[in-house]
Amino acid sequence: MSSSIDNSVTGSSQAVDQTAAVQTPSTTATPGYTAATQVSSMTDLKTKAPVVYKAMLFGIASSMMSQQQRQSDHLKAMIKEGEDNPNE
Length: 88
Prior knowledge:
Largest sheet: none
Mean pLDDT: 75
Order of helices and strands: HHHH
Number of domains: 1
Number of helices: 4
Number of strands: 0
Shape: rod-shaped
Distance between the termini: 42 Å
């Protein structure tokens, strides 16, 4: 599942070209935005730089999933500790 999400973010050569355009404002293949482009909302980002928007959402989702996994592991460890030491 991870690879299909990853491919939607960076799977095409166009996505790589657009990312390069963001990093180097002097690139002539800039699709309407540069590193100096300012956005005021998520909708604005989505319209001006859709590749950056998708990559940002992917990063946020990955962070949320990692945090949820850490919390789940911590809860499992607490439950196991409680089962191993019922009188404490």
